[in-house]
Write a structure and sequence with these properties.
153 residues, mainly alpha, Growth Hormone, Chain: A, 6 helices, 80% helix, 0% strand, globular
Length: 153
């Protein structure tokens, strides 16, 4: 987990550079693709030496992903309801963890940890496939035209 934290620092340090050079849609697509690859990579290894760089990548892209999705939500959601939207987002996020954890545990208990990680990779790949074409539109939600000042609320 400490290696994930180091990856998070790397992701935070790279965020501004990425934001200047890449579209939010591209960053979202790469981040979510890395999510699939991280699950698949964990499924293919049981040695800590291989897991360490995977955790580093996870920490980096997760930090970038969090920054992008909060930026887009902040732009797209009116400030009067931003707190409620963030609460629903957190409920969905932690609700998914609460539902997925025992399912993953059951799969791992009945088969293997590797199988559980392959299932996670497949589920994430399916979710990514479903939203892939929408990501650039989502990324532009609430964006102001170039050279336009953001309105004050």
């Amino acid at each position: 987990m400490a290696v994930s934290a180091v990856g998070g620092v790397v992701g935070a340090a790279a965020y501004g550079w990425l934001e200047e050079r890449c579209s939010y849609g591209l960053i979202m697509r790469v981040s979510l693709s890395l999510e699939v690859l991280v699950h698949a990579s964990f499924a293919m290894t049981s040695h800590w030496g291989f897991a360490v760089p995977i955790f580093l990548v996870f920490g980096a892209y997760d930090t970038v992903w969090t920054g992008i999705n909060q930026t887009i939500r902040g732009r797209a959601v009116p400030s009067a309801v931003r707190g409620r939207v963030s609460a629903v987002f957190m409920l969905a996020n932690f609700g998914g963890i609460a539902i997925g954890t025992p399912i993953g545990g059951a799969i791992a208990s009945l088969t293997s940890v590797s199988t559980a990680m392959w299932c996670a990779a497949a589920g994430t790949a399916l979710a990514l496939a479903l939203v892939w074409r929408m990501l650039p539109k989502i990324a532009e939600a609430g964006a102001m035209p170039e050279g336009t000042a953001q309105p004050h609320s």
